[in-house]
Design brief:
The structure is a single chain. The protein folds into 3 domains: about 160 residues, Glutamyl-tRNA reductase, N-terminal domain (Beta Polymerase, domain 2, 2-Layer Sandwich); about 140 residues, NAD(P)-binding Rossmann-like Domain (Rossmann fold), CATH 3.40.50.720; about 70 residues, no CATH class. The strands form 2 sheets. A 6-stranded parallel beta sheet has the order 7-6-5-8-9-10, with helices on both faces. It has 17 helices and 10 strands. Helix 5 crosses helix 14 and helix 7 runs antiparallel to helix 14. Helix 12 links the parallel strand 8 and strand 9. The radius of gyration is 28 Å and the shape is elongated.
Length: about 425
């Protein structure tokens, strides 16, 4: 058998480090596109793959798949081209691919260092693929170590203390622009995950003239009721934009929500306004940014590098890297031990087969009502005898000679070609 190794893992993707938002949005995949990609991969015999697609990244993590195959899948099911991927994308193999996954999940690779949201996004991506039987045993085990590293990074360091999210960075951006939000008219379009957190952050920083708009009015009202805010209908969007000093857009729409025609009332009575687009694909048409009285900021303009909390988190990075190194080491040890698992299974099956044969032979030759006790006794004896050989195999999992010796000693047959 060709045993799984660390070299079997690959990852490719587009993220905020090298690709601007106008490129990232081309490679962005909604849940329907992710489903189609996984179905296409399965048809090609790929059975271990999950996809993280957020506002800052679209990345594919896989086992037993070449980076070329992953790139072809991504360009097939997204709007991005092969040339664009080669200009802006990345591809990693083996331990570098695994290290990248750990860095993503712990927030070390995030635009907002220590991002609180990213591990949830990784978990959702993993569970989405798992529900479609697209996660191998080795990848499942790797993910458990990834989640453990994240948990340890929060418990053993202060990386998560004051850690920001995109929503928080957006509000900090607004505060830097206006100094004070108390008297500013603010319009929030979209009350999904990011929208709700943004709303809470705005209120906490003193915003009171805040109006919410959502395609489903009931969702906007649910959030507004918590903070005693105003709600407007989507058809009121142009007038609401005209009245606002700050417009924040965070919806899951694949098309622009604010387009040039929505700006007509604002053009008739222009006043300076800032528009923050927290969505990928972008929800504010790029043409809107051409208006003289409008400053449009997208995801690429958000950062918390000057934030005091960021500087505290940055000091924790070396310790988090040590945790990652530790968990990768534990995983690699487990992976190496899998080399002897088929032999261990064959050994235990051989011992159990001998035990059952002997019990069957004597069953009709002894008169007792305590046969269950005899069954249990023989099982305990066999398990204890087998344990010594199993321990020896695990201790010498890198030695093919030890494995072969155990096979010959107990005359073990190949397990359906698996060893």
């Amino acid at each position: 058998m060709v045993h799984p190794t660390i070299q079997d893992f690959t990852t490719i993707g587009i993220n905020h480090w090298d690709a601007p938002v106008e490129i990232r949005e081309k490679f962005s995949l909604n849940s329907d596109k992710v489903s189609l990609l996984l179905e296409g991969a399965a048809r090609e015999g790929i059975n271990s793959l999950f996809i993280v697609s957020t506002c800052n990244r679209t990345e594919l993590f896989a086992q037993g798949v070449t980076t070329q195959e992953l790139i072809r899948l991504l360009t097939t099911y997204s709007r991005g081209t092969l040339d664009e991927f080669h200009n802006y994308g990345f591809e990693l193999e083996g331990e570098r691919a695994i290290q990248h996954l750990f860095k993503v999940a712990t927030g070390l690779d995030s635009q907002i260092l220590g991002d609180l949201q990213v591990v949830k996004q990784v978990k959702e991506a993993y569970e989405f693929s798992s529900s479609r039987d697209m996660i191998s045993g080795e990848l499942h085990r790797l993910i458990q170590h990834v989640f453990r590293a994240h948990k340890r990074s929060r418990n053993e360091t202060s990386l998560g203390h004051g850690a920001a999210t995109v929503a928080y960075a957006a509000v900090k951006f607004a505060v830097r622009t206006f100094d004070n939000l108390t008297n500013k008219n603010i319009l929030l379009v979209g009350t999904g995950k990011i929208g709700k957190v943004t709303c809470k952050n705005l209120v906490n920083l003193g915003a009171s003239k805040l109006t919410l708009i959502n395609r489903t009015r009931g969702r906007a009202e649910f959030v507004a009721d918590k903070f005693n805010l105003e709600v407007a209908d989507m058809d009121q969007l142009p007038d609401q934009i005209a009245d606002a000093d700050l417009i924040i857009v965070a919806t899951g729409s694949s098309e622009p929500v604010i387009r040039p025609e929505h700006m007509l009332p604002s053009i008739q009575n222009p006043k300076f306004k800032v528009m923050l687009d927290l969505s990928v694909p972008r929800n504010i048409d790029p043409k809107v940014a051409a208006l003289d009285f409008v400053d449009v900021a997208n995801m690429d303009m958000l950062s918390d590098v000057t934030d005091e909390a960021y500087q505290k988190r940055e000091k924790e990075v070396p310790q988090v890297k040590k945790i990652i190194e530790d968990e990768i080491g534990n995983y690699m040890l487990w992976l190496e031990e899998q080399r002897v698992v088929p032999t261990i299974k064959a050994l235990t099956q051989k011992f159990e087969s001998i035990r059952e044969d002997e019990l069957s032979f004597f069953k009709n030759k002894i008169e007792t009502n305590d046969f269950d006790k005899i069954d249990n006794l023989t099982r305990r004896i066999v398990n204890k005898l087998a344990a010594y050989s199993i321990e020896h195999l695990r201790d010498h999992h890198n030695s093919d000679e030890v494995t072969e010796m155990v096979k010959k000693m107990f005359k073990l047959e190949s397990q359906n070609g698996h060893d």
